[in-house]
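Notes from the 1:1 (GR / supervisor)

We went over the backlog. Supervisor wanted to see one worked example end to end before approving the batch request, so GR pasted a single chain during the call. The sequence is below; no edits were made to it. Supervisor asked that the structure be written out right there so they could see what the output format looks like.
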Amino acid sequence: MTLDYQIDGPENDDLAKPSQDGVIGADMERRDGRSKVTGAARYAAEHLPEGLLHGFLKRAPGLGAVRLENVEEVRAMPGVKLVLQDARMIRNAAQGTAGEAPVQGVETADYVGQPVALVVAESFETAWHAANRLKVSCNGASLPVLPKNGEADDDMQEESVTGEPEAAFSEAEVLVDETYTTPALTSAAMEPHAAVAEWDGDHITLHASLQMLRYNRDELADSLGIASDKVRLRAPFVGGGFGSKLGISAECVAAALAARELGKPVRVVQHRRQVFEVNTRRTETRQRIRLAAGRDGKLTGIGHEARLSNLPGEAFAEPVLQGSYFTYAAPHRLLRSELVRLNRPAAGSVRAPGEAVGVTAFEVAMDELAQKTGLDPVELRLRNLPETDPVSDTPFSSHRLADCLTRGRDSFGWQDRPTQPRQHREGEWWIGTGMAAAVRVNMVMDAEAQVRLTPEGRAVVETDMTDIGTGSYSILGQIAAEGLGLAVQDVDVTLGDTDLPPGSGSGGSVGAASTGTAVWLACEEIRRHIAGLMGCDAADLTLVDGFAICGNSRRSLVELLGGEAVSGRGKLEPGEALEKVRQATWGAVFSEVAVNDITGEVRVRRMHGTFAVGRVLNQRTARSQAQGGMAWGLGLALTENMTHDRRDGHIVNRDLAEYHVPVHADVPHLDVQLLEDADPWAGPLAAKGIGELGICGSGSAILNAIHHACGVRVRDLPATPDRLLAGLT
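Structure output shown during the call:
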């Protein structure tokens, strides 16, 4: 039995809805938390089949044609089993939802650090040593094009013009016209990319650290030149991804090829420095933002122009302008982006692709407009909220930005701040506060799930959906528990296996709403079957505490099933809803910082975020996701910067010692307030994405607080002490 469902709008939605006081939405601990903290959870690299061999990727030291100089010498080393250079090896990780092989072939290095060979040996140490002994030369490539003088790729340009924007800018009573830059960034997930490949005849099982198995299966099959039904992927636990594991990466294909050639299982784990080089990064950006307004702060024109980069041959362009289409109203608009081709590691989706850097820059510009007009930054934003989508004129499915701004303002204590910068000093520290709006597009994706109700009255949820630390195990268990009237502890959840129905995967903040809805649909199918056994309509059936109740009849599920199991399968498709309405998630972030007048050091003292994200499925995991995004915003504003050598494009700081992610000492108390947002266009669960919203605007709130504290406006991120000192003297 399969229940198909498309999200077309509230008028077509006659499905049962979760109750307001059930287990959905409760503050519950992660069901996988104990196994993770005790070490019982097994990640990809911890799968150790008998006869396991170990591979280590060899990187290109330069650009151009690749030559392996001493292959025979390395092959003769004790314990070495294989030196592999295969045309099917991949140049870089696949883009999210690609569903096909990325660029293949390693005979030419298109960026420094590209995998060009794999050395396999009896032990990891031997493979690493032998790979270091393997000599690689690169010859014949020119230097990479630099962003400041590179020609844009005509096929990758985006432009949207409404009204007469140039006239609006030239005639504006108040004009902000500034350029902001953000550096290249990396996901830096805790678990390195890893794969263990085993062949059984012409079938392969790959244990890997991946986010979206339904697509990854096709990507691996295409890379190997085999049918998808001969590939099984397993990823029950993933130690973070943030976009870097959306597509298969080099270790997956290399391990599979080596295992097939050697007839033994092969494990390949990326070294931390390889993680920085081989997998997709966030592009650096240069953004020119123009805001035309009257003296009352009402926007008359919006201009947002961005320059991005990517490796030749990659079709992805960071959607930097995404939030600028709908956040604020203005009759005249110019939105334009262009992409430059660089011989640097491929750019791809990193947490909140688009808004993470686009909203960050735009919200700093809004703060500059507030300063020029003399308006309170919250009031300025409230004056410019649109009634409908400013470009398409379609209605919003729900619009809670005003509520987030006002509720956040009141919770933070915003009204107590001085109106002008450099007004509050404690010793050698300037103190200030700042705020920003947060917006993120909301999406759903195709997803399927199966739920089995066993003769013993337990439920089993099955889907290839992944849990990358976001709480999928917990949330899907809660949904099934409520859908079937069971206690949460009577529900088992099995994830991360392509032998199971294809879920949405983890990416784009779609997982909980998409695969969660598929689980709810599967439960609805079981409910209808039980209603038939009870002799009543499903609408009249109540399932609670393991009992089915209909009218005056009450029977236990165990008795009702009579020793038989019942299965339901749910299938979600996006439908037409997103064509009829503009759907988004909303937030407002407030921060207080201290800036040292002598050293330029910035300390974030507190942050508050108010967010509207549809129906919250688990208060604890939702709050955690919001806090994680806010911590990411702090890193974006203050510490993170992937630095490329401009001579050949190689990454200078390719480890966690030199690429500075925020640590405990950097992150203050992060206060989160979640507003109820029952969006009728979001399906029966009314759930939306939350994993990425928290980063959008959090960095701006910190940067704006820095300006309020000490009067220094930082437009080139991150706001490191050297960039503040010049303005403090």
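Supervisor's comment: The chain has a mean pLDDT of 96.
Batch request approved.
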